[in-house]
Amino acid sequence: MKMYLKKIIYVFIVLLTMQLNAQEHSTDISKDTTSIGQLFLKDGKNAALGVKHSFLRPLSWNKKDFTTLGAVVAGSLALATVDDETSDYFVRQKPPKLFQEVGTRFGSPQVYFIANAGLYGYGLFTKNEKLRKTSVLIISSSFTSGVIQSLGKTVFGRARPNSGLKSNEFRLWSNEAELHSFPSGHTVLSVTMAHSIAKQFNNTWSKVGVYTLGAIAPISRLFVGAHWLTDVVLGTALSIAVVDSVDKFLFNSNEYKYDNVKKKNIAWNISFTGNQIGIVGTF
């Protein structure tokens, strides 16, 4: 099973690099004449600046940003009232074993590192700017969201569904793994990578395919009782917000060339309808 999953990961990386490489050539972008070492230093600098920007971004929030934050918090509190019921429902289901295995591994730090290292390595040695930019976006975003989710797990100390405790059990500053439910780390890594990659495609169906793969890990964590629904939803919201912030920073920095993909990004919004709450993507 493990060898089979490794093959899936390798095939995914190859197909992704081929697709992004094709888009790079289709836009007729000239080859970079700088050395690989200079490109590496440039990307490292931009990644560090992206992290700095994303952490400092709340200091310059406007009214719209605070309104969005308030909506997310209010919606999450409303959704939390049914966390126990939704968890019971997911745990009762019996998804295919392969689905669970793929979900667990696709959202793990090891697979994230392998996938992004392969993506960036290929982009660096072929001097493919689109691949390098994508990796810089992933690295900056995942570092920021990863630090936030790691601190959140310890600070809030929320009990996991499979711990036998209720969703409203919080033990602040806990070091116990069964009390590290909020937010979902698998969700943060998986959605961060998926959202970063999907931004690079012009084709809507390519975006849908990438987001579908990115959703496997978060959903699989619900089935095994590792996280509550709000852990996954807020992990998703955090990832999207950070990726969008870093992407905007890189775009404004003019360090990388952006084509018409910028005009075709999916706009994500929190939606409230009656007794429902959801994250809606507008093409």
Automatic annotation (TrEMBL):
Q: What InterPro entries does this protein's entry cite?
A: PAP2/HPO, PAP2/HPO_sf
Keyword Signal listed? The answer is yes
Its signal peptide is 1-22
Q: Does the keyword DNA repair apply?
A: no
Phosphatidic acid phosphatase type 2/haloperoxidase domain residues: 136-247
Keywords attached to this entry: Signal
SUPFAM superfamilies attached to this UniProt entry = Acid phosphatase/Vanadium-dependent haloperoxidase
* Organism domain of life: Bacteria
Q: What is this protein called?
A: Phosphatidic acid phosphatase type 2/haloperoxidase domain-containing protein
